[in-house]
Design brief:
The complex is a heterodimer of chains A (324) and B (377). In chain A, 68% of the residues lie in helices and 1% in strands. Chain A is mainly alpha-helical. Classes of the chains: A mainly alpha (324), B mainly alpha (377). Chains A and B meet through helix 3, helix 4, helix 11 and helix 13 of A and helix 6, helix 13 and helix 15 of B.
Chain lengths: 324, 377
């Protein structure tokens, strides 16, 4: 048992690391979509935020300024999305796509113009990055079999943003299900007319929802360039925004279920690296591409209603027209 | 006096010409601001782009070669739009269309003459593209899964599938880069230079090939299908109102599946231009974003073939001009074009209605109130 335990722990440890941006982005998407605004621009917001964080950290040397600028950039893009979708009733998918493409182009253009490194930002070290945190007692109880090692190897030793991601899930759950704002948020995504009749501002609620979405997506972006990696690399989101969206749908737009979906997709990612060229008993070698495509395939199957049924918020994607 | 500007009808020339041009200008103006921010003179850049895209036969050849791709993907998005379906999967459908071309040619290119090979290749591209769009279409029609999400997922699945096939199955033995072997010249789509040479027209050698003709034929066919056939009528009706379509005896499910298949087939034809016309082998990532650009093209072209040709030409200029620009001005890269594309989708698509109230107010100031229909009374 003691032989394979360390490698299992290593995979779980990696799972937490790769799941973190997915979790933050999925919670971001949850706020937006629960308020009735489709958000396929998680990818673009994360990418722009990662670039902002990477650039500011490189120039200022402060990871906190980097985080702040990532959040500002991401919230700005989220408000742009809101401006198009809420104020001007534009097509939400088109707006999201525009933000993704804009971010994809602009991060490279500005990166090359500012740093002249082919779109990469300078490497970060020291205070310009989020560094691992040793949780209390990790050292002392690491000798306890299984549980102690699990605490020391898997739970402890991550950077701050990993723990922020998990806290964000709890906070999201509490916000959405236990506060007045959350009740209104869910109502505005299901039946905006009822919310309007109750004398509340549909636009106001939706704008606050996309702003929170921007905040969380910004943290996810900062994680990519200042915590998980030590610089911004062009196209570094590599579809993670879409995987987070898939996880959100897989979790049926609920925080805890979405968290589990993110962890599952993260686990698949962590495992796929280790399974490269490994013969599995009875199956043979599994192509890495098959494991990489699995989150998308599973989401398609789920959406088709073959495993349970994912029902979107009723008013999602429909612009609210007050006057009639 | 606040009036509801949304219900004020505008003359067609304002709606179809002036507002789209204003939207485009806002996008280009924003692009100019970005260039200023990185220390590039936008007017100088514009000059380089136009010169680099339209300046001589060579530049024009490249521009029209890009245009061909955009016509295919633009039509693909438009035909789905008319059925009120949003096909974001053009990228994946084009990719799988390339797989169809490659499979047919790798099997047959040594045995058949060009007269058979070229039509077979076109058919394979369309068929494989259609098949890749059929699944999301069927899932939307019969299982209620949302087409936007499914087609996004299918882009990623297509990408993984193609990497696997190219790295493990279709790769030319003994070669490092994941590409198939080159097809026999009989399977190539004739280049425009070769096609026009017998008529005494001498062109410079560019990637431009007869796929452009195919694209223009597709424009006419799509126009005819949407506005002049019973099926097109059904498609537009189902897109406009599903209950109305049902009441009229139209089966919306059948329309959804048909529209997606046609859309996928058109996107698949990108492979004719790229794989049959230019690369003559299957290679990784050949759709290179053309599928996504099709969305911008269709939005700008107001989902009409004529508009799509104009918008495709504009994007052709943007792509080719952007490539030249990257040569001419150090510090600016091809990705500038991607950013401009994002701005165009933003202003022509998501914010398409932003300027309408302003235009309506100006229009009402010029035209007295009696010209308004009874709708606003």
């Amino acid at each position: 048992m003691s032989e394979w335990l360390p490698s299992v722990f290593a995979v779980l440890d990696a799972t937490l690391r790769v799941s973190t941006p997915l979790i933050l982005a999925a919670m971001a998407g949850l706020f937006s979509e629960r308020s009735g605004i489709v958000d396929i621009s998680l990818e673009g917001k994360m990418l722009a935020a990662a670039f902002a964080a990477g650039s500011v950290a490189a120039v200022s040397g402060s990871v906190w300024l980097a985080l702040l600028s990532a959040v500002l950039v991401s919230v700005a893009l989220a408000l742009l999305h809101g401006f198009a979708c809420i104020t001007h009733r534009g097509n939400q998918v088109v707006s999201g796509l525009a933000i993704n493409i804009l971010a994809s182009g602009l991060t490279v253009v500005l990166g090359i113009a500012w740093f002249k490194r082919g779109g990469q930002t300078p490497a970060l070290s020291g205070d310009a990055r989020f560094s691992p945190i040793e949780l209390p007692f990790a050292e002392q109880i690491s000798d306890v079999p299984v549980v102690g090692r699990f605490y020391a190897d898997v739970i402890s030793g991550h950077n701050l943003l990993v723990y922020v991601a998990f806290a964000a899930v709890v906070a999201t759950w509490w916000f959405v299900y236990r506060t007045r704002f959350g009740l209104r948020l869910r109502a505005v995504g299901e039946n905006p007319l009822a919310v309007d009749t109750a004398g509340l501002s549909v636009s106001g609620l939706r704008y606050s929802a996309v702003a929170i979405c921007g905040l969380l997506a910004g943290i996810a972006g900062a994680y990519l360039s200042t915590a998980q990696n030590a610089s911004f690399v062009r196209e570094m989101t590599a579809g993670q925004g879409y995987i987070a969206l898939a996880a959100l749908i897989f979790g049926k737009w609920r925080p805890l279920a979405a968290l589990l979906a993110c962890l599952m997709f993260g686990f698949l990612d962590a495992v796929s690296i280790r399974l490269q060229g490994v013969e599995l008993p009875g199956i043979g070698e599994v192509p890495v591409q098959a494991i990489q495509a699995l989150p998308y395939v599973l989401t398609v199957i789920l959406l088709a209603g073959f495993i349970g049924k994912a029902v979107a918020p009723k008013a999602v994607g429909v612009p609210f027209v007050k006057e009639r | 006096m606040s009036i509801n500007t949304a219900s004020v009808p505008l003359p067609a020339w304002l709606e179809v010409v002036v507002i789209p041009i204003l939207n485009l200008l806002m996008a280009l103006f924003s692009a100019g601001l970005i260039m200023l921010a990185i220390g590039v003179n936008p007017l100088e850049a514009l000059g380089f782009m136009i010169q680099g895209a339209l300046g001589d036969d060579y530049a024009l050849g490249y521009t029209l070669y890009y245009t061909t791709n955009f016509i295919f993907t633009g039509l693909a998005v438009a035909i789905a739009f008319h059925a009120s379906l949003f096909n974001i999967g053009g990228e994946g459908q084009a990719y799988i269309g390339g797989l169809g071309v490659a499979l047919v040619f790798l099997l047959l290119d040594r045995y058949l003459p060009a007269v058979l090979l070229v039509p077979l290749g076109i058919a394979a591209a369309a068929l494989f593209g259609a098949a890749w769009a059929f699944i999301p279409g069927w899932l939307q029609a019969y299982r209620g899964s949302h087409i936007v999400i499914t087609t996004i997922m299918f882009n990623f699945i297509a990408a993984s599938l193609m990497v696997y096939l190219l790295v493990n199955v279709l790769i030319q033995p003994g070669q490092m880069s994941p590409e198939s072997r080159a097809f026999e010249p009989a399977a190539w789509m004739p280049s425009m230079k070769a096609a026009l040479a017998p008529f005494g027209i001498d062109l410079v050698s560019t990637p431009l090939n007869l796929s452009l003709v195919l694209a223009l034929v597709c424009c006419v066919l799509v126009w005819f299908y949407i506005w002049r056939t019973r099926w097109g009528y059904e498609l537009r009706t189902a897109g406009f109102s599903e209950p109305a379509a049902r009441y009229a005896g139209i089966r919306p499910r059948g329309v959804i599946v048909t529209a997606m298949c046609l859309s996928g087939a058109l996107a698949g034809l990108v492979a004719v231009n790229e794989i049959m016309g230019v690369h003559h082998r299957l290679l990784l990532n050949f759709p290179a974003g053309y599928g996504f650009t099709g969305i911008a093209v269709s939005l700008m072209g107001r989902n009409h073939p004529i508009g799509i040709v104009v918008a495709s030409l504009l994007f052709g200029v943007l792509y080719q001009g952007g490539a030249e620009l990257a040569f001419e001005i150090p510090g600016i890269t091809r990705e500038m074009v991607v950013a401009i594309q994002g701005l165009i989708i933003l202003f022509s698509g998501a914010l398409a209605l932003m300027l309408r109230p302003l235009v309506v107010r100006l229009y009402l100031r010029v035209k007295p109130v009696e010209s308004l229909g009874p709708a606003t009374a």
